[in-house]
């Protein structure tokens, strides 16, 4: 007991420091979420001091729009080719989630961002892993991956998003009445980065009911936790798991993102020419969707501070204007990749307003 206490006294500051770093990191990741970020080079507010940045912004937006077409048509062969490639290299269906199948008792989970300190799968950890892949053999006819970009505000896309068979959302976005018209309220999978668990729910070290209650809006969705990116992400993610378990099995079903899948995905996108440390949550979800869905629709993916249609200034997220703290992505290069796929008829990026009862 005494040893534990002394250990804790020494460890606590270290842990706090680590979790602080992880928060900072995940803020970066989550802000990169979806919005494959522009921030550092492209100012969010074009009216800022340096008008030259603003004109650069316009040029990039112009180029991007040049590659965008509203009248999208799926190109079956391109889609199949890309999907097959992803399938060969990443195999989301068997790898995306840590399961008892792909992660046996006694094996090691190798952290994505901390390779040298693997986590051994104890009986306790093993017991809470999903028994099998939640995606099984399922191929959904249509999937909507909803990014949190400000481009969704006033888009009236809610109905269209709800009409998808499988709806994926990123980082516990708000879905209340204020936003339902624009983003819908159906959710089949939602991600929760450790940063948001720290920011909004005190890292689940205090009252946990607010967390559980706020998850009601996602119904029975899968709650995807990137628990094994860094060692310090694990405890808070496990607390999320246990909280949901303790409060009854009515809410979302927590599952853990597989760091091995993340590594494969990072390599895959590097080979496609993406020069970033690792894909954002938005790109990870889009990649997952490409393997498990026949038709992939992306909403809220638009990494610029101006609306594509009429150049009106838009906020960073559809629900707030929080800027990313720091950013190593110098260009919205993820968006460029997705735009390429849009152009090739592989994924359908939706910008601008949706027509009512569109599909
Ligand atoms: C648009 O497409 C052209 C040619 O395919 C490419 O060179 C350019 O980088 C693309 N621009 C953007 C912003 O995606
Ligand atoms: C997937 O399909 C194969 C063959 O059709 C079947 O043997 C297997 O049980 C299925 N797995 C799941 C998880 O549905
Ligand atoms: C959305 O519409 C409301 C009401 O018309 C307006 O006040 C708000 O600025 C709009 N938001 C965006 C991001 O365009
Ligand atoms: C979505 O909203 C509709 C109408 O407001 C409601 O009937 C439905 O239960 C909601 N669905 C979810 C998953 O919250
Ligand atoms: C684009 O803007 C024009 C007016 O500038 C408006 O009439 C139109 O509905 C908008 N379209 C979309 C898709 O946002």
UniProtKB/TrEMBL annotation:
Official protein name in the record = Alpha-2,8-sialyltransferase 8F
Its gene is: st8sia6
GO BP terms in the entry: N-glycan processing; olfactory nerve formation; olfactory placode morphogenesis; oligosaccharide metabolic process
Q: Which PANTHER family match?
A: ALPHA-2,8-SIALYLTRANSFERASE, ALPHA-2,8-SIALYLTRANSFERASE 8F
Q: Which organism is it from?
A: Danio rerio
What's its membrane topology? Single-pass type II membrane protein
Q: Name one GO molecular function term.
A: alpha-N-acetylneuraminate alpha-2,8-sialyltransferase activity
Q: Name one Pfam family in it.
A: Glyco_transf_29
Subcellular location field = Golgi apparatus membrane
């Amino acid at each position: 007991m005494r040893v534990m206490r002394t250990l804790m006294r020494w460890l606590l500051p270290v842990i706090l420091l680590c979790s602080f770093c992880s928060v900072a990191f995940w803020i970066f990741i989550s802000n990169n979420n979806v919005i494959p970020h522009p921030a550092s080079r492209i100012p969010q507010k074009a009216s800022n001091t340096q008008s030259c940045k603003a004109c650069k912004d316009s040029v990039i937006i112009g180029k991007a729009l040049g590659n965008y077409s509203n009248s999208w048509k799926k190109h079956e062969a391109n889609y199949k080719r890309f999907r097959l490639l992803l399938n060969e290299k990443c195999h989301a269906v068997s790898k995306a989630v840590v399961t008892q199948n792909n992660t046996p008792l006694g094996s090691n989970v190798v952290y994505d961002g901390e390779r040298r300190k693997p986590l051994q799968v104890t009986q306790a950890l093993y017991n809470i892993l999903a028994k099998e892949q939640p995606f099984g053999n399922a191929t959904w006819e249509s999937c909507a991956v909803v990014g949190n970009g400000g481009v969704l505000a006033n888009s009236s896309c809610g109905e269209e998003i709800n009409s998808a068979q499988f709806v994926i959302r990123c980082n516990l976005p708000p879905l209340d009445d204020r936003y339902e018209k624009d983003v819908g309220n159906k959710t089949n999978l939602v991600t929760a980065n450790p940063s948001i668990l720290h920011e909004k729910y005190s890292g689940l070290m205090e009252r946990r009911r607010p967390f559980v209650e706020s998850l009601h809006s996602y119904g029975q969705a899968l709650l995807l936790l990137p628990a094994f990116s860094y060692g310090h992400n694990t405890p808070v993610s496990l607390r999320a798991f246990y909280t949901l378990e303790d409060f009854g099995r009515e809410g979302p079903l927590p599952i853990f993102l597989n760091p091995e899948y993340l590594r494969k995905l990072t390599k895959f996108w590097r080979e496609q020419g993406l020069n970033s440390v690792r894909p954002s949550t938005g790109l990870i979800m889009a990649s997952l969707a490409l393997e498990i869905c026949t038709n992939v629709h992306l909403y809220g993916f638009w990494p610029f501070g101006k609306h594509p249609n009429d150049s009106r200034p838009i906020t960073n997220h559809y629900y707030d204007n929080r800027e990313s703290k720091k950013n190593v992505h110098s260009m919205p290069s993820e968006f460029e990749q997705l735009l390429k796929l849009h152009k090739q008829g592989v994924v359908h990026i939706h910008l601008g307003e949706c027509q009512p009862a569109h599909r």
